Amino acid sequence: GNLMKELLPFSEHPSGPLTALCTDIFTKTLLAGSKEGHIIRWNIASFLEDSRNKKNQIKEEVCWRAHATEVVELFIEEEKNVVVTASIDGSVRLWHAMTGYYFGYFGQAREFELSDTSRLILPPDVNDFPAIIKEESKHMEKKKVTYPLMLDRDK
């Protein structure tokens, strides 16, 4: 988990140790679950084709908070385009693979409605909406800025 911690996500959430990884059938998409309950989806297709070419980078596409606690397992079901996540809190949840929209949890009374991604709902213990990363975004870099304290008597 600590090895990929160095890949800073584009989202405002700090990167933490990764606890679960999976790829799609064609190994074009990498999904990772974190200790803080986030799911991050990367496009790794161009990087795997030629990892020595610096233009071919791992591109983060979407990040969302799936659980309030550590993600212990996840997998992508490509036919239905969903991601299934499990956490140490005992919940197993279903998400839209491309957008991170929440469909529900296993054991709920209502049926999963997988075709409607326009109705954005969140689980009761999560209040962060998915962050879809645009292609032209740059990594968030921590900049060193010093602001000396100065007393301005005129103000």
From TrEMBL:
Q: Which Pfam families match?
A: Beta-prop_IP5PC_F (PF23754)
- The residue spans of each WD repeat are 64-95
Query: Among its keywords, does the record have Repeat?
Result: yes
Q: Which UniProt keywords apply?
A: Repeat, WD repeat
Q: Which InterPro entries match?
A: Beta-prop_IP5PC_F, WD-EF-hand_domain, WD40/YVTN_repeat-like_dom_sf, WD40_repeat_dom_sf, WD40_rpt
Residues annotated as domain IP5PC-F beta-propeller: 9-96
Q: Which residues form a coiled coil?
A: none
Q: Does the keyword Repeat apply?
A: yes
Designated name of the protein: WDR64 protein
Source organism: Sitta europaea
